[in-house]
């Protein structure tokens, strides 16, 4: 555990959606290490969520797990209520929950489309709306942060890079980009900061077939000029910075954390 006097998020309350695994778990632990009290949201894996909570507590932090499907309005409302009953308010929302349901475009079912848009985009809308209500109600509390609240949307390099075979996912992340920017434009007047993180390839269960064998990892590395697959801690560090006052003048941007994947490495040798 870090020196408590230097913790960047001391006393602030953070909700991280989809924090029972992968990037969400990494972000939850990184925010907790900086002194935030963390709500670890999960949709189905209580075991995963409990593991994240246990790791945070073992490191001297504070966390609770709350179940909610972020695409379900009633469950989102009840999650926010439970969070307020426990921690009183919210300072940081990390809209991280997301999934893929891949299919060739002509074979994609409406259910595959709606499920991905429902969780990856509508889920971010519902949680951001509820957090924004509380940020506006409470306003700035100078001893906590210069901002009234911070919203961090987990986007993807696929808010920029088209992705054949994953059109529902790419459409959801393209949607997150303008959801984030439009909310940022509307909420700046309340001193609410809104930004996104666009991870490249990070080692998590969502994409394990892309890196779990040496052959797969070698193929993946052709897309990553920096020549390593990302870790959840890379995204945790970015989230801490965007949540902290160190980035107080950063608003409405997507922070790309991808080892250069969006540099079009296919053009490295003259295209
Ligand atoms: P992951 O599968 O480990 O995590 C996704 C989490 O979202 C899981 O904990 C899952 O239970 C949760 N979730 C799914 N549906 C939910 C729902 N309805 N309500 C609440 N939670 C739900 O994968 P990950 O890689 O950690 O993904 C986290 C985020 O990062 C996603 O938004 C994903 O699109 C994004 N992302 C990941 C990568 C990568 O390379 N891993 C790259 C770019 C973006």
Give an account of the 3D structure.
The protein has 271 residues and is an alpha/beta fold. It has a single domain, classed as 3-Layer(aba) Sandwich (Rossmann fold). 41% of the residues lie in helices and 14% in strands. It contains seven helices and seven strands; from the N terminus they run βαβαβαβαβαβααβ. Strands 3-2-1-4-5-6-7 form a seven-stranded parallel sheet, sandwiched between helices. Helix 1 crosses helix 7. The longest helix is centred in the middle third of the chain and has 29 residues. The radius of gyration is 18 Å and the shape is globular. The termini are far apart. The site of nicotinamide-adenine-dinucleotide (NAD) has 28 residues, from helix 1 and strand 2.
